[in-house]
């Protein structure tokens, strides 16, 4: 019966939430020996595979260990190299820092140099300006120099003209002197003409007045003084000749008298009396001081020997004499 029962399948169902499932109800499946065997084989196979894998891993590790160690060594070396490089880099960094300080100092120096360059530029600009001004000055000097050369070329001609001018100047001076002399002569002639028009005669630098009215010797002298003159003196043969010829044989007092009855003859106009030179002008036998009263001299004869001593109280014509003094122009 149990077997029949087992041959009728029971149907079971279950509700899970809204799902409905059908399944046959049977007791839990008994373990199949073949299945156990299969499981055991599977485990063995897995162990083998694991063992193989482990061995493979060990082998691989053994095989890779040297390479790995080598790699580590290389890595170490590289790390040391890197460390060295890092050290170098830090050294470089400090150097860079130092250099940066140097760069800053250099920057300051560069700024100073730039400032100096600006100064130098301004100096150069000033120098250029100065050079331009100097060029302008040089051009002016050059043109001036050309003008000077031009003048230099004219110097010989100027010299000749100057020589001509100086010779002309000398001639002008001569002419001026001549003109002055002529002017003096004209003035002199004018003075003489004026005196002549007043009755005076001119002879060798003196004016002579031959009176028309007889006077005593003293009165005659007073008259002459009143006309800025003196009774005439006689100092040369030509003057003596001029006087006796003008007298024309008439008696004329001259300015010769004695200092007292026993005194020496003297000229009343203070001309020194030369007794020896005058001796030739006396009439022979004169002066005889007749009656011891003849102390004045007169022209008596129309000849070189014409003088006579006579009494001063006699009234004779008389001759006044005035030196010609050119008046100021
Ligand atoms: Ca006499």
Automatic annotation (TrEMBL):
<keyword id="KW-0325">Glycoprotein</keyword>
<dbReference type="InterPro" id="IPR001304">
    <property type="entry name" value="C-type_lectin-like"/>
</dbReference>
<keyword id="KW-0175">Coiled coil</keyword>
<keyword id="KW-0812">Transmembrane</keyword>
<protein>
    <recommendedName>
        <fullName>C-type lectin domain family 4 member K</fullName>
    </recommendedName>
</protein>
<dbReference type="InterPro" id="IPR050111">
    <property type="entry name" value="C-type_lectin/snaclec_domain"/>
</dbReference>
<dbReference type="GO" id="GO:0016020">
    <property type="term" value="C:membrane"/>
</dbReference>
<keyword id="KW-0472">Membrane</keyword>
<dbReference type="InterPro" id="IPR016186">
    <property type="entry name" value="C-type_lectin-like/link_sf"/>
</dbReference>
<dbReference type="InterPro" id="IPR016187">
    <property type="entry name" value="CTDL_fold"/>
</dbReference>
<dbReference type="InterPro" id="IPR033989">
    <property type="entry name" value="CD209-like_CTLD"/>
</dbReference>
<keyword id="KW-1015">Disulfide bond</keyword>
<keyword id="KW-0735">Signal-anchor</keyword>
<keyword id="KW-0430">Lectin</keyword>
<dbReference type="InterPro" id="IPR018378">
    <property type="entry name" value="C-type_lectin_CS"/>
</dbReference>
<feature type="coiled-coil region">
    <location>
        <begin position="148"/>
        <end position="192"/>
    </location>
</feature>
<keyword id="KW-1133">Transmembrane helix</keyword>
<comment type="subunit">
    <text>Homotrimer.</text>
</comment>
<feature type="domain" description="C-type lectin">
    <location>
        <begin position="203"/>
        <end position="321"/>
    </location>
</feature>
<feature type="transmembrane region" description="Helical">
    <location>
        <begin position="45"/>
        <end position="68"/>
    </location>
</feature>
<dbReference type="Pfam" id="PF00059">
    <property type="entry name" value="Lectin_C"/>
</dbReference>
<dbReference type="GO" id="GO:0030246">
    <property type="term" value="F:carbohydrate binding"/>
</dbReference>
